[in-house]
Amino acid sequence: MALINENYLKLHGSYLFAEIAKRVAKFKGENPDANVIRLGIGDVTRPLPDAIIQAMHKAVDEMADEKTFRGYGPEQGYDFLIEKIIKNDYAARGIHLGMDEVFVSDGAKSDCGNIQEIFGIDNIVAVTDPVYPVYVDSNAMAGRAGEIGADGKWSRIAYMPCTSENNFIPQLPQTRPDLIYLCFPNNPTGMTLSKDDLKKWVDYARANKSIILFDSAYEAYIQEKDVPHSIYEIEGAREVAIEFRSFSKTAGFTGTRCAYTIVPKEVEAYTEKGEAIPLNKLWNRRQTTKFNGVPYIIQRGAEAVYTEEGQKQIKELVQYYMSNAKIIKEGLESVGLKVFGGVNAPYIWLKTPNDMDSWDFFDKLLNEANIVGTPGSGFGPSGKGYFRLTAFGNRESTEEAVERFRKKLKL
Amino acid sequence: MALINENYLKLHGSYLFAEIAKRVAKFKGENPDANVIRLGIGDVTRPLPDAIIQAMHKAVDEMADEKTFRGYGPEQGYDFLIEKIIKNDYAARGIHLGMDEVFVSDGAKSDCGNIQEIFGIDNIVAVTDPVYPVYVDSNAMAGRAGEIGADGKWSRIAYMPCTSENNFIPQLPQTRPDLIYLCFPNNPTGMTLSKDDLKKWVDYARANKSIILFDSAYEAYIQEKDVPHSIYEIEGAREVAIEFRSFSKTAGFTGTRCAYTIVPKEVEAYTEKGEAIPLNKLWNRRQTTKFNGVPYIIQRGAEAVYTEEGQKQIKELVQYYMSNAKIIKEGLESVGLKVFGGVNAPYIWLKTPNDMDSWDFFDKLLNEANIVGTPGSGFGPSGKGYFRLTAFGNRESTEEAVERFRKKLKL
């Protein structure tokens, strides 16, 4: 008799976005003429920059000719792309990586979800609260999370609350964690860690033989100087950190799919008997066994991000969204709302007025201003009383949304 | 202290293709002028058909325009592609599938590797021997394979030998299996099951509450009538089978990456307490949590496979390779070699002369005829004394290879 993985039954449904869709559908049914503006989901809306488009056309043509056709590529990605990543995203910041420390993939979601496979089941996982759900769910599926409580917290996950009280900087949990997921600039709060803040985590991991799983999917949005783009800017991080990067938000690749993960040769974890094992070797084995690489055409598109034109165009793209972020942030502040993020990230995390429940604020915003956002409580218990807006809309609707906050929302 | 998944340490290295590369490099070093023909690896060489090229160019252009740009798509794949798959690959054979029973992915390797995640650790896995290594390795990584022996066999995997003695038809193993991997047309042997053969497995799975994981990546190569293209041609298979399909070999997508997996609503596995759980729900949860869909551009390319032009062009592609297969098969038979496969699959599985060791034959073929193939023993103990050639080369080198078998190989 075939048995299922019963850990799957412990998971709650993907309640958040389904519930949002349901409430929006109901509202639109009752208000068919309402012009609803969606600032809820974290998906880009601007077209791909021209340098990328041209590179992909060229690659498509190569696939049409026997002489330039490409079959299976290296599972880890083509050298032409890895070289550009190392040179532009790392060497330019004084970080030196080997060619076999970069693993190109189809998405940071895949890598963040799959990375836990190379670790033992008994590790204690720490996550920030609020949090990107993939870190938690992928560990729960593997049996590393224990049981889920009525408050939505798993018994074997260590949660690190990030709220306005601690300026959204996670503190060490009471249980000593083995695997620590950090995402900065943060989704959903849009807040960052300084180099000093991040150094404390690296030092902690080195002292305790923990591993930091560092998601820097939003690094391209960093505007301020002291905010680290890569965890490897911190001394010693090569011994304890794996870093996830993506072209999704950097270059508009959410529907084009390319990302990469850095696993330095020095990062080690341990057998039960205490033998140190390089994680690079394990991740390479995982990827070569269960993955067959990113399409050649897409890798050529990603490579074009690093041309002179490409760099100029993706910077314009990021600035477009960051101007939206500024418009939202300043607009909301002008009506007296308390707002976080939006400076080094495309996310605005607002405190609901009078500690209103996140879902009540969702309904109020939808009904009074016809704007869809995301209730903070959907990202974890410490998101209660918060609300996320994203800067990924177009300029016109972003400005219109702010206008409605000013004129229609009864605060 | 972070612990690793120690199951990874039990795996042997990807010895086979590394060892081939090493021996070829050594030979070429010593024989710099030799014109080596590679019929070893199972990778396509013909360019992508024009219908697919044109569809991808169009999709690239759509990504350049705000009005047609695509961000995140459904993790399960776009409806436009799923509809075509259902209509052309299944309904045309009398098989009816729901839209939510098809999961588009980046490759059959990913799906074959990931599918085991939704099953419990205590299931007994059965595989044919010889076998595509991903089925075994992915289960070993999850801790389902036990320990590996000196003969390369895992203690908790049930092996089903497929040799000329049983006409390459797997027999039920002595241990009752819960998860049964079947790949037909088979890689590496190129052999098939008839509908009656396959029905025995479906009946067995229904009687024993086992699950069949059916890899039909090579179905497009089937030429004979009685060979099933899909396991769902067999009555009752919807209750017990998951099917993997790929555009890799069908349409030349090995470097373009698109595949799909069918999980019918009726397929169920069980909790320890005996409760039946639909696997469709579990696989959907796995994919939505750890995967973010196939690039829009690539899905449009796959869709074009189903246009009138596309169908015509991929049939030509398959016929090109199958003509190669016929040339190899007949050529080898003409020099007295015993040859299997090559009729409904692009693989030729030959018995080495005088039961020569697979690796000895590899060296002989390389030295005498300058041809690279794959030693059968690399696919499992029952591959000993066999050797794989593939039909994926171009016509000229395939004909030249056969000529060398005739004239240079000392049999």
From TrEMBL, chains A, B:
Keyword Transferase: yes
Key words of the record: Aminotransferase, Pyridoxal phosphate, Transferase
Molecular-function GO terms, alphabetical: L,L-diaminopimelate aminotransferase activity; pyridoxal phosphate binding
N6-(pyridoxal phosphate)lysine sites (modified residues): K249
GO biological process, one term: lysine biosynthetic process via diaminopimelate, diaminopimelate-aminotransferase pathway
Reactions catalysed, as given in the entry: (2S,6S)-2,6-diaminopimelate + 2-oxoglutarate = (S)-2,3,4,5-tetrahydrodipicolinate + L-glutamate + H2O + H(+)
Gene behind the chain: dapL
Source domain of life: Bacteria
Binding residue positions for pyridoxal 5'-phosphate: Y72, A108, K109, Y132, N187, Y218, S246, F247, S248, R257, N292
EC number: 2.6.1.83
Protein function: Involved in the synthesis of meso-diaminopimelate (m-DAP or DL-DAP), required for both lysine and peptidoglycan biosynthesis. Catalyzes the direct conversion of tetrahydrodipicolinate to LL-diaminopimelate.
Name of the protein in question: LL-diaminopimelate aminotransferase
NCBIfam families the UniProt entry points to: DAPAT_plant (TIGR03542)
Pfam families noted in UniProt: Aminotran_1_2 (PF00155)
Family statement drawn from the similarity comment of this UniProt entry: Belongs to the class-I pyridoxal-phosphate-dependent aminotransferase family. LL-diaminopimelate aminotransferase subfamily.
Entry cofactors: pyridoxal 5'-phosphate
Description of how the protein assembles with itself and partners: Homodimer.
Pathway(s) this gene product operates in, as recorded in its UniProt entry: Amino-acid biosynthesis; L-lysine biosynthesis via DAP pathway; LL-2,6-diaminopimelate from (S)-tetrahydrodipicolinate (aminotransferase route): step 1/1
Protein species of origin: Anaerobacterium chartisolvens
Domain Aminotransferase class I/classII large: 35-405
